[in-house]
Task: inverse folding
């Protein structure tokens, strides 16, 4: 599996699915499972949007939270605080970077940030493990 990042693997809420433990086919407890294809590829809607988005009028019209007039809303701030503290990744900072520099530059930055120094695969944001060379 190469370290190439793809905009279709960048969820509405700002999580990079390419670095998600579920994408690699594991659960946080280490149990093997069916790999996830990413939030945007699933038939069902985004869990974050379904459960937490309060802007009903805009949630079906936007691709990512930063396009919403309520950005950053209180709900996104909550998930951002959790992700920043637990996984060292700020969803809001990702969006700010994308707004300033564009998705292509963000993806280049992500490739470097999550690149395995051993094999060039992708390090999981949740487990800090490369499932390419350390399954």
Result:
């Amino acid at each position: 599996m190469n370290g190439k990042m793809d905009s279709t693997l960048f969820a509405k809420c700002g999580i990079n699915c390419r670095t998600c433990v579920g994408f690699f086919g594991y659960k946080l407890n280490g149990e093997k499972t069916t790999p996830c294809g990413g939030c945007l590829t699933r038939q069902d809607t985004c869990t974050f949007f379904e459960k937490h988005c309060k802007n009903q009028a805009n949630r079906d019209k936007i691709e990512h939270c930063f396009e919403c007039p309520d950005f950053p809303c209180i709900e996104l701030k909550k998930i951002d605080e959790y992700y920043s503290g637990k996984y060292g990744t700020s969803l809001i900072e990702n969006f700010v970077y994308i707004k300033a520099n564009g998705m292509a530059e963000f993806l280049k930055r992500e490739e470097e940030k999550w690149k395995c120094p051993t094999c060039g695969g992708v390090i999981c944001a949740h487990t800090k493990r490369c499932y390419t060379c350390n399954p």
About this structure: DSSP finds four helices and no strands in the chain. The chain has one domain: 7-113.
